[in-house]
Design a protein that fits this description.
The chain is an alpha+beta fold and 260 residues long. Strands 1-2-3-4-5-12-6-11-10-9-8-7 form a twelve-stranded mixed sheet, sandwiched between helices. The chain is elongated, with a radius of gyration of 20 Å. The two termini are 24 Å apart.
Length: 260
């Protein structure tokens, strides 16, 4: 008999998720961990009165994390089938960094497509050209907030303020003109990795600014003994090209699996 039990304790929920991510070769992605997974509900999986693992599912019944302990993994396919047949999950988002999770999803998929590119660094790229020597790249200050919000899309209220408070936001200026911003977050699940991202002000795109910011963020990572990770939507070809010009390779994907 299979049962599920919602985990109410945020500490227990976070510990379970972090322990699962530690079993992977490397973290998936900062946004994925801190926004997608953290905003989903977490449940224990119980089989014959024994806790065998846990899973996380969002409000749309999308499975975003699925873990069974090694001694119970033999039941993974049956458990996922139970979730689907009982309308507990309808779809799944799973990364290619999670081979066990991905494999069991493929048993019941009706359709599959790539959703997100996941990048790791592959080489150093020198962007210290003459045209960029007079630019100022520094940590953002609270006094930069209004300019940032004017030039760059706001993820949600308080987002940039939170990054600034934690020294996770950089700005690129040409004199008093903001050209773009760079985000930097040490991964909560693995402090040896950092997630980085870039937003370039619209009028300065396709001028090499994105590549410049990304390589500066990479340097900041390596100076702090951190391995940089990045991602972008699979439809965002401009971001993909920027990351590849910065020395990243998209060697993994987040896959959307439909079970219906």
């Amino acid at each position: 008999m299979i049962k599920i039990n919602k985990i109410i304790s945020s500490e227990k929920r976070n510990n379970l998720r972090k322990e699962y991510i530690k079993t992977l070769v490397e973290p998936i992605d900062g946004y994925w961990e801190t926004v997608v997974i953290d905003n989903s509900e977490c449940y224990e999986i119980i089989r014959n009165d024994t806790i065998v693992g846990h899973f996380s599912v969002d409000k749309d019944k999308t499975l975003v994390q699925f873990y069974l302990s090694t001694e119970h993994y033999i039941y993974a396919s049956d458990i996922l089938k139970y979730f689907i047949e009982n309308n507990i999950v309808k779809t799944a988002y799973v990364s290619t960094k999670e081979p066990d999770f991905l494999s069991v999803c493929l048993d019941y998929q009706k359709s599959v497509h790539s959703d997100t590119y996941l990048f790791t660094d592959n080489q150093n790229v020198n962007t210290e050209s003459l045209e960029f020597r007079n630019l100022s790249f520094r940590l953002a200050l609270k006094s930069d907030i209004n300019t940032i919000k004017t030039k760059c899309d706001v993820a949600f209220e308080g987002y940039y303020e939170g990054l600034i408070n934690n020294n996770q936001l950089f700005v690129l200026y040409d004199d008093d003109t903001l050209l773009g911003i760079g985000e930097f977050r040490i991964m909560a699940s693995n402090i040896h990795y950092a997630d980085i991202g870039v937003v370039v002000a619209e009028e300065y795109r396709r001028k090499g600014m994105g590549t410049y910011i990304i390589t500066k963020l990479k340097k900041h990572c390596y100076n702090n003994n951190l391995k940089p990770l990045a991602c972008c939507d699979i439809k965002n070809i401009a971001s993909k090209n920027t990351l590849q010009k910065s020395g990243f390779i998209c060697n993994h994907r987040i896959i959307h699996v439909n079970f219906n």
